[in-house]
Every structure is written in C-alpha cells, then in structure tokens.
Amino acid sequence: MTRHFLRDDDLTPAEQAEVLDLAARAKADRFGLRPLEGPRTVAVLFDKSSTRTRISFATGIAELGGHALIMDAGTSQLGRGETIADTARVLERQVSAIVWRTGGQERIEEMAEGTTVPVVNALTDAFHPCQILADLQTVREAKGALAGVTLAYLGDGANNMAHSYLLGCATAGMHVRIGGPAAQPPDAGVVARATEIAAATGGSVTVTDDPARAAGGADVLATDTWVSMGEEGKGTALYEPYAVDEKLLALADPEAIVLHCLPAYRGKEIAASVLDGPRSRVWDEAENRLHAQKALLAWLLERSP
C-alpha cells in the first residue's frame, strides 16, 4: 500500500522515530541516501509562495540522487481548473512522488486518493507536518530525547503549526502546550486526536489562553508569524500577550530553547533579542527541513510499491 504523509499522525510513534533516526543519518552523511538515483523525478507543486520549503525540497531531492520538477499553480493546468484527480493520474505515470503546498487539506487528500505514488503535505491550511519533523529533529539534537520534553507554542492556536505541534509532539511522547487567545482555539478534533495519542505515548496536551501557564518551566518555546499566508489584513492585537520576549522566556526552563519556523517578524511574535539570542535554535531548525524531508521521502519510497 502506498504510504502518504498528509498530517502528522500518518506516522505511528515508532515510524516517526524511524524517520527522525534516518534524518540524523542524512545530516551526518549528507549524500549517503540515494533512493532517487536514476535520476527519478519528484513533482513539487506550489499553490502558495515559499522559501524554505522550495529550497529544502529541491536541494534534498537532488542530494537523494533525483530531480525536482517544481511547478507553480500559475504555470500548470492545475491552476487553470484541471481536476486534482486528473492531475494525480498524469503525475503517477511519470514521477516517483508528489510534494504539494496548497490550501485546503481536502485538496491534498484528494491528490493522495487519486495516485499510486507517495504524496507529501508541504503545508496546508490545516497542517504543516514536514516543519514539525524538522522541529522534532532540532529538539532531539538539543535535548537528547523527545519523550517527556515540554514544548509550548505561543500564538495563533487555530493555525496549521499549532495543529501539527499537537499531533507531532503527542506522537513523540512530549508534553505539548498551546498558549493562544481563547477566541482562536485549535480545532477540537485535532485536540481530541492529540490527547488520544498522548495517552498512549506518555505525553500530554494542554490548551490555555494564559501565556505564563503555557511557558512556565517549558523546555522549548515555539512561535510562528501572527499573519499566515492568505490572512493578510487581519488584526494582530489579540496575539500581543503571546509574543515570545525576554519576559516570557524567563518563565521557561533555564535551559529552554526557542524555535520559529520563519519567516519571523522581530518585535511582533518574537523579540529580536530572543530570535538572535543564545537560546535560539531557529537556524538549526531551518537547516533540518532539508534533512528531515530527505529522510521522509526515503522512508516513504522504501515502504511504497
């Protein structure tokens, strides 16, 4: 059966650990994995703008021995109304995997249903699971393990990063806290699913509108831009109490590290002194997109017909 990665809980705890182990190998031996030798082609589709995702997938696919066919919505028939099902059927005849950065989660699920090659979610409005794999790799490098580590996400609890932290951290056996405005809570179904996973892995899930409760004693503070793609023009005053600044960082564990998936807006969701400070692991996190995604692609290809 073809394996896809459409949301964080598509990997079991054991499978997630396998991918992260492989990511560590990929980082230690950058050109050691060659599952796309040929070169085999991976279609990388973008309905939304991107810097890190585009660079890391293009570079990673090349380092796996393959070729990245990068297409934007505006330059493909998909952007002119060709159905997702028809696009999926065409692509599966020619490429080894499909990576897609798009909007609605149902779009990437339809792509996966229509094709026999692995489909990877490179970001949807609901989830950003590749980013969380890179974040978990970064936390594991800094803390030595994931199980039992407390990660607090501060900001918009209703966005894709919050949802993926809930599922991905719960899968890793971590304690995940979402600190954001009560008016912007995470999806109730995602919280329920994360709570179910955490009960099995020894982790826990907390959702609070109290930033101090979220950050208190945490091993990792994470945040994201307050205005995601497609939300331009929305107000941000609601999020100001959740800005990751020196005052909030002082509430966390003295050895706490800080993550931000970028792009960052200094003086908004994160203070410049924190983003550029000694506890920031943001640049390791950005690099780990490359290694985690290479590992994911290699893992999916190995387990798919």
From TrEMBL:
NCBIfam families to which the protein is assigned, alphabetical: orni_carb_tr, PRK00779.1
Keywords per UniProt: Cytoplasm, Transferase
GO molecular function: ornithine carbamoyltransferase activity
Span of domain Aspartate/ornithine carbamoyltransferase Asp/Orn-binding: 148-300
All residue ranges annotated as the Aspartate/ornithine carbamoyltransferase carbamoyl-P binding domain in the record: 3-141
UniProt-listed InterPro entries: Asp/Orn_carbamoyltranf_P-bd, Asp/Orn_carbamoylTrfase, Asp/Orn_carbamoylTrfase_sf, Asp_carbamoyltransf_Asp/Orn-bd, Orn/put_carbamltrans, OTCase_ArgI
Name by which UniProt lists this protein: Ornithine carbamoyltransferase
Transmembrane segments: none
Enzyme Commission number, as recorded: 2.1.3.3
Presence of the UniProt keyword Transferase in the record: yes
Binding locations of L-ornithine: N160, D224, S228, M229
Residues involved in carbamoyl phosphate binding: S50, T51, R52, T53, Q77, R101, H128, P129, C130, Q131, C261, L262, R289
Gene field: argF
Keyword Transferase: yes
HAMAP family: OTCase
Catalyzed reaction equations: carbamoyl phosphate + L-ornithine = L-citrulline + phosphate + H(+)
